[in-house]
Write a structure and sequence with these properties.
3-stranded antiparallel β-sheet, 14% strand
Length: 111
């Protein structure tokens, strides 16, 4: 069951005469929605962590240009493929993900 729906249903069933505060208090006392509230809080924390991680991706920080190159999308940071960092994919999102991987990759050794 959707955790937000359970809270909504519990409160909605208690609203009378527009007393929302009383309805919320009554719903919390009558129905054990504490675990639903904990689940919502946990979901919010995971979402916040995911949002933070998205904001520090190289493709977000360095904002490479995005263009079609042949039959693929190309995310390029720099003047050209030889001097810059690039990622390729079937969609702009895949090109950005590949760009992130390329950004973190070491140069190949010259042996």
């Amino acid at each position: 069951m959707d955790t937000h729906q359970a809270v909504y249903d519990a409160v909605r069933g208690k609203i009378s005469g527009g007393n929302i505060d009383g309805a919320v208090r009554s719903a919390i006392q009558d129905v054990n929605i504490g675990h639903y509230l904990e689940m919502i809080a946990a979901t919010a924390q995971v979402s916040a962590a995911e949002i933070t991680e998205e904001h520090i991706r190289p493709s977000v920080l360095f904002r490479p240009s995005i263009a079609i190159d042949g039959d693929k999308w190309c995310a390029l940071y720099g003047e050209n493929l030889q001097d810059g960092v690039a990622g390729f994919g079937d969609s702009p999102a895949e090109a950005m993900k590949d760009f992130d991987s390329s950004w973190r990759a070491s140069l190949p050794s010259k042996t």
